[in-house]
Write a structure and sequence with these properties.
3 helices, single chain, 155 residues, 7 strands, two-stranded parallel ribbon, five-stranded mixed beta sheet, alpha/beta
Length: 155
């Protein structure tokens, strides 16, 4: 299994979600199953089926998070600013609009477009990897081609 690189914030967020699912959510779902079971015949009880399905989905997510966190490596310490790597904050200039934008390159598990956290496996993130300041990067996306100049790389 491959290592997953996460920022400390991303690791803590996933760990917090895991703890919530294992404690609070498990108790809530067990209670819901018990209440649905108390309504009588479970063979024709849609409420019971829904509660059991939710319980199964919760356990699946717990297993996923356990597995991801077991393979996680936290990105700390000094990482070179000479090229774009995971954990880098990349300041870009759109060559078509002259607009400037910054992205933090993260693992899929941390991606959040509204916070400008772009996954390294996304079209934008994967094309930025290993480039240097002043490089021109052309990125094909479903809506066309983006043309960026890398202005700055920081951590």
């Amino acid at each position: 299994m491959a290592t997953i690189y996460l920022t400390r914030e991303g690791y803590e967020k996933l760990h917090e979600e895991l703890q919530n699912l294992k404690t609070t959510k498990r108790r809530q779902l067990a209670k819901a199953v018990g209440e649905a079971r108390a309504h009588g015949d479970i063979s024709e009880n849609a409420e019971y089926d829904a509660a059991k399905d939710a319980q199964g989905l919760n356990e699946k997510r717990i297993a996923e998070l356990d597995e991801k966190l077991s393979r996680a490596q936290i990105l700390d310490g000094e990482i070179s600013n000479s090229e774009v790597l995971i954990g880098a904050i990349v300041k870009l200039k759109d060559l078509d609009t002259a607009e400037e934008i910054s992205y933090l390159l993260v693992a899929e598990e941390e991606a959040d477009y509204e916070q400008n956290k772009v996954s390294i496996s996304s079209p934008v993130g994967s094309q930025l990897l290993n480039h240097k300041v002043n490089d021109i990067v052309e990125i094909s996306i479903p809506a066309g081609t983006l043309r960026y100049q890398i202005l700055e790389i920081s951590r």
